[in-house]
Amino acid sequence: MKGRTDEQAHRAVEAVARESYGRLVALLATRTRDVAGAEDSLGDALLAALTTWPRDGIPKNPQAWLLTAARNRLTDHARHQQVHDHNVPILQLMTREFDEIADPDALPDERLKLLFVCAHPAIDPQIHTPLMLQTVLGLDAVAIGRAMLVAPKTIGQRLVRAKAKIRKTQIAFEIPSPDQIPQRLEAVLNAIYAAYGNSWEDATAADPRIAELGQEAIWLARVLRAQIPEDPEVRGLVALMLYCEARRPARRSADGRFVPLSEQDANDWLMPMIDEAESELAAAAQMQRQGRFQIEAAIQSVHAERAHTGRTEWTAIAAFYDQLMQVAPSIGGAVARAAAYAEVRGPEAGLALLDQIDPQAVIFYQPNWAVRAHLLQQLDRTQEAARAFDRAIGLSEDDAVRAFLTEQRDH
Amino acid sequence: MLYALLIYENQADFARRTASVETDEYVGAWRKYYQAMVEAGIYVGGHPLDVPETATTVRFSDNKSQIQDGPYANTKEQLGGFTLLELPSLDAALEWAARCPAASYGAVEVRPVTFEMERRITD
Q1: Taking CB atoms and an 8 Å cutoff, what residues of chain B touch A33?
Q2: What is the pLDDT of residue B67?
Q3: Which of A133, A171, A227, A401: CA 20 to 30 A from A36?
Q4: Tens digit of pLDDT for each residue in A367-399?
Q5: How confident is the model at residue A85 (pLDDT cuts 50, 70, 90)?
Q6: How far is Cα A225 from Cα A292, in angstroms, rounded to an integer?
Q7: How many domains does chain B have?
Q8: Predicted ipTM beyond 0.85
Q9: B92 lies in which domain range?
Q10: Per-residue DSSP letters for A301-356?
């Protein structure tokens, strides 16, 4: 009997940690402006819950219990340090504020403020996304390192440095004023999209936290849209992620094999999500300010049209990639543009565009080799194609993609 | 929070302090900036520093003090002065730094004052 209560309590701690970690860190940090302190005190509170809840039962409002416990840790710590800490009265005020809230959903959501802090221009831009993944989404340094292909130790040190800067310089936890938003927003949007991209690429995510990242990223973008409805790029990002997310069920066959976009059955796409993406993109277009995310969403919109028309308008896609490369040039965009032009003008034209990209920049970029292999094969340049396939297979991270490319090579 | 705004200027900017044609404009911009800070009630203190050629750098090594003519760092932009402001957040300090005349022709570095260190020294 005891064992079962233990297990239930442990599961409750785990559930509240998974669902509410970022919310609770944001609530604490918004009031103390100390992200590291908020995380440490919440960690202590979760540990305390693991011993207390099996003994005393799971509290009615677990979030409020954890907040109170974390707050007490912070107050103790400030007293212990015997420093004049302006946070103590703030923390005491916070107790009363939260004790009166019985419904966990009624707790204020401060994650957006935390997001703007993570993407603050005073913080090293390279750490914006990892910082967001850790503080807002609760990923640990190991998972972030895996998602971002960086050593966890390096990430850990840079996260510590960033949090120290937030605390020592007292970066404000607030939604920036309207004139500041454009400058700050880009970093926030990039961080959200990077979080989404990490979950997208890892289609067979072994870590459930990474699998949930995509959902969380979309959710954050939606919160952002509610807060800043007049920015077309926010809507563009929401649309872009929804288009991609709508295709998730079609990316794998029933037996787990990789299905490329061109061979996906449009009946497997989630149409309500595509409809929502369409209306977001239309609303963004009304605001008449073009941007990277709107163009990328427009490209996905053309792909989505196949659900209605049965065909893909590659000319339109190629034209959007031209625009994208002017607004926000990238290696990924250049390779995708070559693939689009190959569909319009034939494989030779595609190869010519691939050859225009700096070879050093794409030597380890998997899509470059996959597209090249595909085009060489169409031209019956079999040996070169096989070499390119081998390179693409060697650079793939996903078993299903490796299997797909191997099959294509031996076709 | 107390923030220090460290003002960096290059040789030509320092020269504007005395070149009669441009002096009015240079001093005028600083005067307006100073008045705005005082009126906002955030100005705590600060001073312009004399030109880098007046600097002398001292190091103690090999059991004796080494005295060297010139500023500590031999860079194109040199410390030209500092301002102390009482503000609620880094963001507010960055806003005031952006308004500083030196932000448009030189650079302004924003640093929080550390009272923790100050207490350890002065207590």
Answers
A1: 89
A2: 87
A3: A227
A4: 999 999 999 999 999 999 999 999 999 988 788
A5: low
A6: 16
A7: 1
A8: no
A9: 2-122
A10: HHHHHHHHHSS--HHHHHHHHHHHHHHS--HHHHHHHHHHHHHHH-HHHHHHHHHH
Residue B55 banded pLDDT, cuts 50, 70, 90: very high
In single-letter form, the type of residue at position B9 comes to: E
Q: Looking at chain B, which residue has its C-alpha nearest residue A123?
A: B90
Q: Do A169 and B91 touch (CB under 8 A)?
A: no
Reduced to 3 states (helix: H, G, I; strand: E, B; else coil), residue A86 is: coil
CA distance A200 to A241: 10
CATH number for position B23: 3.30.70.1060
Q: Which CATH number fits domain A330-411: 1.25.40, 3.30.70, 3.30.750, 2.30.29?
A: 1.25.40
| Cβ-nearest to A171 among B89, B111, B114 | B89
- pTM higher than 0.95 for the full model? no
**CB within 8 Å of B22: residues ≥ 6 apart:** B16
User: Which chain A residue shows the shortest CA-CA distance from B2?
Assistant: A169
Question: Which residue in A83, A170, A175, A179 has the most chain B C-beta atoms within 10 A of its own C-beta, making it the best mutation to test that interface?
Answer: A170
Specify the pLDDT at position A207: 58
Residue B63 has pLDDT above 90, yes or no: no
Q: What is the mean pLDDT of residues A284-306?
A: 96
- Put simply, the answer to whether A172 touches B116 (Cβ < 8 Å) is no
Nearest CB to B91 within list A83, A168, A172: A172
